[in-house]
Amino acid sequence: MAAAGSRRSPTAEPPTSQSCGSSIVDKATLLVIQGIDQGARFDVADEPLGLGRDVVNPVCLHDTEISRCHARVEAENGNFVLSDLNSSNGTYVNGESIRRRELKNGDQIQVGRTILLFSHATDRAAGTDASQRIAFVPERDAEDLSSIVSSIGHEVGRDLVTQVHDLKPDSVAQSLANLQVLYRISEEAVRHSAAIEQVLERILDLTIEVVGADRGCVLLRDVDTGKLSPQAIRYRRGVDQSAPMPISHTIINSVVSNRKGVLTSDAQSDSRFTAGQSIFQAGIREAICVPMQGRYELMGVIYVDITTAPQRVLLDGGNISKFNDDLLRLMVAIGRQSALAVEDNRYQQALVQAERLAAIGQTIATLSHHIKNILQGVRGGSYLIEMGLKDFNEEVVRKGWNIVDKNQTKIYNLVMDMLTVSKERQPAMVEADLNETVADVCELMQARATELDIQFERRLADDVPASYFDPDGIHRAVLNIVSNAMDAVEGREDARVIVSTEFDPRGGALNVLVSDNGPGIPQELLGKIFQVFESTKGARGTGLGLAVSRQIIREHGGDILVESLPGQGSLFVLKWQLIQEPAPAEQNTTA
Amino acid sequence: MNDGQHVLVVDELTETQEVLQAVLAPRGFIVERAAHSAPLTAHELQSRPDVVVIDADSLPAQQTSSARWRGVPQVIIGAARVPDSPLAAASQRHLAKPFQFPELIQAVEQLLAAARRD
């Protein structure tokens, strides 16, 4: 389900958050991760986006604890702001009640019992962007003057806060600060996020902030080739982003081979001070590179650097160092946390992929089964037609044609149901008479009722007002339910199906009721009947009809209620709110 | 003689029975249908069919070999083929979906002919 989205307006201010500065089109989405509409996704664009139960909202949710017009998301200065519209049950962001809040990537919005994940990514491939902003310095390159100042094994990071030998206030405070950083990184790592690049970018932002680096990047190891490639790059605010970030192959190879974090500096060569004075022209560049050691293997490396300006170096006589062993130790711990985040993300992705493949497999198997049955029917009909033509027997030809025709209708219905289930559509709301639509269904089904000797009654209420709904959709929804009712009573001596309409003026609701005196639905199946591919009709059912009917009624902001008693029959109530005014879009069209 | 030979099609869909009826009824056979889900009527229980055609795809496995049809020559239609055994070969035929109807008619005719010889 995707509401109509639009690109960011050219007049909007550029994003104020740290960004890489390349041409970026912001792209935001709301994904329902909990609640009745779980799985529904909505694009968020420049147009204000209403959230609520009413069908006029682009984000129409079917949770009964949500107000009709509950909240709104709108673009403001390059960001998105969520406002509560005096809803009855309030709007929450990450568990906090809000009236108005600027949304950040990964925020969880709770309305009623529904939780939506806000994702605000950029429309670029982070990995590609990072690759273009990094310049690898080959091994033994004459320009690479960096040398390793100190190194620490990846296992030391684990002791960062667990072994505080020095109980001086400064040391304790530092340990607590480190703990806080690691906690924040862990928190980032477990937040819902669409892509690992987003997690890595957030970790890099925190790392740059805490170690005071100018820029940082993450290189991840390819699962198949084992090669490291840049996945994310971030800069401290105000740092020049035009020059590529140099990364030394020598340093990376050392980190990968030894599984040790290293601190490097190009200020170690005393000869440079005495000979060329080049350090006073280019400044001093320090870097920390640490392994991202996962539970079982190396996931990649994190590389951060900082350059001290020539003037500063000059003032301090070349004796300047911003990175130290404490920061290196902290970085090693961050590397470990980041590796675990990458591992978890990959496990999660693999799990999602496996579930997706399983679902695809089940879908294909179920559809193949139905299509095979239909094909079998067509073959049977064709065989009779051929036989009848050969024998000049018109009756046999007609029998064959009836079978072909019946199966042609089956395949049409199957395709239409699949299309309806595969994506949520906007109902085509027009002013119409519900009784007329229901009467059409009854007329269509009358022949079948007669054929099966079913007592088929229609009781259409006189007071049903004209209203706005999707007549084709409602027709399809009611037809599916009536057809099911007839299947349920087929073969009974006193088979009866009653279709009625009702208008509830107090609740402002329209009801279509379909009752039968069939065998009823066992209690344990009642919770499953609306699930896709769940059918109690064996080979006669596709398992799509009820799912389609409910989807259509929910598109109208309503639902289908079922009462069933085994041995006595079932009652299906299709219920939705009366709409007597066209939605704004239709009003505009009309105008 | 074909008179009175009875073919029962156990299938929730009607097409197989309709085709067999159109082909076999003019030749004196009786072709009836029973849905899986419906309990057999007293008439169906009393009149033992000469051949039963079972759509096994939507029938639980234990029902395809249930005591209900033991000893009755069977044509079993389904996605999976059951391995042939010498004993079953004489009284069982298997057709994988989608099949051609002449194959089904031939299988039913062979079993009916064998039943007449017995």
General description of the model:
Chain A is of the alpha+beta class and 591 residues long. Chain A has helices at residues 126-132, 169-190, 196-211, 249-258, 270-274, 278-282, 310-315, 325-390, 394-422, 434-451, 471-489, 523-526, 545-555, 584-590; strands spanning 26-34, 41-44, 49-52, 59-60, 71-76, 79-84, 91-93, 96-98, 100-103, 108-111, 114-122, 134-137, 147-153, 215-221, 228-235, 245-248, 260-265, 284-293, 298-308, 430-432, 455-459, 467-469, 496-504, 509-516, 559-565, 569-577. The relative contact order of chain A is 0.07. Chain B has 118 residues and is of the alpha/beta class. Helices cover 36% and strands 21% of the residues of chain B.
Largest sheet of chain A: 6 strands, antiparallel
Average pLDDT of chain A, rounded to a whole number, is 81
Strand order of the largest sheet of chain B: 2-1-3-4-5
Q: State the separation between the terminal residues of chain A, measured CA to CA.
A: 28 Å
Amino- and carboxy-terminal Cα gap of chain B: 13 Å
Number of strand elements of chain A: 26
Structure classification of chain B: alpha/beta
Tell me the helix content of chain A: 25-40%
The number of distinct helices of chain B, counting runs of at least 4 residues, comes to 5
Radius of gyration of chain B: 13 Å
Topology:
The complex is a heterodimer of chains A (591) and B (118).
Chain A: E1 26-34, E2 41-44, E3 49-52, E4 59-60, E5 71-76, E6 79-84, E7 91-93, E8 96-98, E9 100-103, E10 108-111, E11 114-122, H1 126-132, E12 134-137, E13 147-153, H2 169-190, H3 196-211, E14 215-221, E15 228-235, E16 245-248, H4 249-258, E17 260-265, H5 270-274, H6 278-282, E18 284-293, E19 298-308, H7 310-315, H8 325-390, H9 394-422, E20 430-432, H10 434-451, E21 455-459, E22 467-469, H11 471-489, E23 496-504, E24 509-516, H12 523-526, H13 545-555, E25 559-565, E26 569-577, H14 584-590
Parallel strand pairs in A: 3-4, 12-16, 21-23
Antiparallel strand pairs in A: 1-2, 1-11, 3-5, 5-6, 6-9, 7-8, 7-10, 10-11, 13-17, 14-15, 14-19, 17-18, 18-19, 20-22, 23-24, 24-26, 25-26
Helix pairs in contact in A: 2-3, 2-8, 3-8, 8-9, 9-13, 10-11, 11-13
Chain B: E1 6-10, H1 15-24, E2 30-34, H2 42-46, E3 51-55, H3 61-64, E4 74-78, H4 86-91, E5 92-96, H5 101-117
